[in-house]
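ok so heres the complex, two chains, lmk if somethin looks off
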Amino acid sequence: MNLGQLAHLLNFEILTGDINLEKAIKGGYVSDLLSDVIANAEEDSVWITVQRHINILGVAKLKDIVGIIIPRNLHVENEIIEKAKTERIAILRDSRSSFEIAGLVYNSLTRD
Amino acid sequence: MKIFKCDLHIHSTLSPCASLEMSPKNIVINAQKAGLDIIAITDHNMVENGFYAHELAKETGTAVLFGMELQTREEIHLLIIFDNYETASSFHRRIYDLLPEVENDPSYFGDQVVVDCDDNIVRFEKKLLLNSAQISLNDAVFLAKQMGALVISSHIDSPNFSIISQLGYVPEGLPLDALEVRKRENIPHLLPFIMNKGIPFVTFSDAHYIDDIGKRITALPLNEPNVEEIAKALKAMEKTVPSNDG
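and the predicted structre for the whole thing:
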């Protein structure tokens, strides 16, 4: 399943336009500690986090993460969205909690 | 007693997020221009560039202390400041071993460069420094205090990497010398989250660019520009919250 299909299936809001929508998703990771993500996230995954500062893009790049999913419709600064486009990291958003989003993503990927 | 203008939170070329203009030489020159009496170079989890700044500052008269901005396991930033390079270096070696073996990606985070007194590149640090050393807040504070450091919790009014953003409050029983704030006007809002009464607030620049140096300072009355004197002056400062003595 690619990011675009996942976003469409689960009705995620896409903040970064067409970035990475065609990229295949192999897994996911949920954590709000950047160092934990650096240590444990796998490439080609989506990362669910409440963190929205500039360093999330660095971590996503470092770990070859396809997209970052922001829960609870939390606000993301325009500056971060623009930088994400430049760095080619997708940012998606949803009204549900990290727990619910993780469950939905997990089910979608394992059924795939 | 003389009043010393202190800026004890300055990043250099060794911090990936700092400008490559921030060589020890440029920092020392601009610290003098800014009228600073004491500075500390506090790179993320590193102390090395402080050595060169200290050498250079012998001529300008600015006192240079040896610091680092440590990132704990909880992703809390702490300013750890020593009087001498040997102790700072031995603290640093312990921290460096606790940093994960993850390489920096300079194209995104920026380069991490050790630069000598003449602006020559000594080496590039390969390990990603914007990462957590695998040490808890408690262990880090107690280890640093044991080794004679000044320990200040970084920018506690920041939504990222601060003791309040990560823990929700400043726990009791943590022997911090001070709490750094970006803006003094935030102090009233922070007070309910500070369990540890009587720690003074300080402000420093957290400079990443040349023009930031000395933008925010804390002035302290000291006999000598050293850690012991600074700790004493901080203790004597107006307390954050009066302790409840009955």
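quick notes: The CA atoms of residues 205 and 216 of chain B lie 5 Å apart. thats all i got rn
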